[in-house]
């Protein structure tokens, strides 16, 4: 789903959030929006948290292997450097950033940028994840994606962790997580 501004003023910025559970297609949707913008000759910067090295250290990669180059960073404030001539700032796996990301995203949007953010809205316990609740509250557009529950096939919005760990952040793929619907997640 493409999200476009309702105004012709190219100096009006906004915030788009792509959220959902694991395996719901968040990174793929982000990549699609970036490719569409690049086809329209818009200048884009793509960022990701340096901690996320699951598929590649300096690319965002979807589960179906679509990929785009990205700048891995540890500090959200680094996104403010050199963005004056850019139209779009894209951020993948936003849940791994500190709360500083909220101010950075708002500052970029206030400077007239289209800011597209993708990330998990809930952690493995079904609780709000990192800065995502605050980002959702300041977003202009929100897209919530769903996977299919691996147990019953229903619409899934939960990321069930298959391993024992109490750490909120445990990087992994299908070896450690699976998509579940509300009923299967809670049973």
What does this structure look like?
By secondary structure, the protein is of the alpha/beta class. The protein has one domain (about 15-145): 3-Layer(aba) Sandwich (Rossmann fold), CATH 3.40.50. The protein is built from four helices and twelve strands; from the N terminus they run βαβββββαβαβββββα. The chain has a six-stranded parallel sheet, with helices on both faces. It has a two-stranded antiparallel sheet with strand order 3-4. Strands 9-10 form a two-stranded antiparallel ribbon. The termini are far apart. The mean pLDDT is about 90.
Features:
two-stranded antiparallel sheet, Rossmann fold, 187 residues, globular
What percentage of residues falls in helices of 4 or more residues?
10-25%
- CATH uppermost class: Alpha Beta
Strand order of the largest sheet: 5-2-6-7-1-8
* Succession of helices and strands: EHEEEEEHEHEEEEEH
């Amino acid at each position: 789903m493409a999200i476009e501004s309702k105004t012709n003023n190219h100096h009006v910025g906004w915030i788009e959030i792509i959220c959902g559970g694991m395996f719901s297609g968040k990174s793929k949707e982000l990549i699609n929006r970036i490719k569409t913008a690049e086809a329209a000759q818009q200048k884009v910067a793509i960022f990701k948290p340096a901690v996320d090295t699951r598929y590649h250290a300096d690319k965002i990669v979807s589960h179906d292997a679509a990929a785009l180059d990205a700048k891995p960073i540890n500090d959200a404030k680094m996104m403010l450097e050199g963005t004056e001539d850019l139209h779009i700032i894209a951020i993948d796996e936003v849940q791994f950033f500190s709360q500083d990301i909220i101010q950075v995203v708002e500052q970029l949007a206030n400077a007239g940028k289209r800011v597209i953010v993708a990330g998990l809205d809930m952690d493995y316990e079904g609780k709000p994840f990192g800065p995502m609740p605050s980002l959702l509250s300041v977003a202009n557009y929100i897209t919530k994606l769903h996977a299919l529950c691996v147990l019953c096939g229903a619409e899934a919005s939960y990321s069930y962790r298959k391993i024992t760990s109490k750490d909120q952040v445990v990087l992994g793929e299908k070896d450690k997580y699976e998509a579940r619907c509300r009923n299967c997640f809670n049973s």
